[in-house]
């Protein structure tokens, strides 16, 4: 996997990726570490998109489990309060 700095990618765009072999995933790296993956697309784009989203959701879920383990978990009332807070924030963004 090739690494390209975000700064180089922003300033040089496609030229920054010329050394990357076709089909290889590229990791865009910022000052604070890895930031984005550039993933080549082959064949069935919809199937690949589904698989990528599934992998991202699974990674997010694992991170959530890790954080919950650090905090010690939440009871039902705390979960409901957090869900309500997120829904309220979403509604305010739509209105605002």
Care to give the gist of this entry?
With 96 residues, the chain is α+β, with helices and mostly antiparallel strands.
Characteristics of this structure?
96 residues, three-stranded mixed beta sheet
Class based on secondary structure composition and strand pairing: alpha+beta
Question: Please, what is the average pLDDT?
Answer: 86
Share in helix: 55-70%
Report how far apart the termini are: 42 Å
Secondary-structure element series: EHEEHH
Unreliable parts: none
**Tally of strands:** 3
How many helices? 3
Main sheet?
3 strands, mixed
Task: Tell me the domain tally.
Answer: 2
Radius of gyration over alpha carbons? 19 Å
How does the overall form come out from the CA principal axes? Answer: elongated
Major sheet: arrangement of strands = 1-2-3
Strand percentage lies at 15-25%
Topology:
Elements: E1 2-5, H1 6-12, E2 26-30, E3 33-38, H2 45-71, H3 76-95
Parallel strand pairs: 1-2
Antiparallel strand pairs: 2-3
């Amino acid at each position: 996997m090739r690494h390209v700095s975000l700064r180089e990618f922003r300033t040089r765009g496609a030229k920054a990726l010329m050394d990357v072999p076709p089909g290889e995933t590229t990791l865009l790296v910022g000052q604070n570490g890895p930031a984005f993956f550039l993933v080549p697309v082959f064949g069935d784009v919809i199937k690949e998109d589904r698989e990528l989203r599934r992998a991202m959701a699974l990674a997010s879920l694992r991170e959530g489990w890790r954080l919950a383990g650090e905090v010690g978990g939440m009871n039902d009332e705390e979960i409901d309060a957090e869900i309500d807070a997120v829904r309220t924030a979403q509604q305010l963004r739509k209105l605002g």
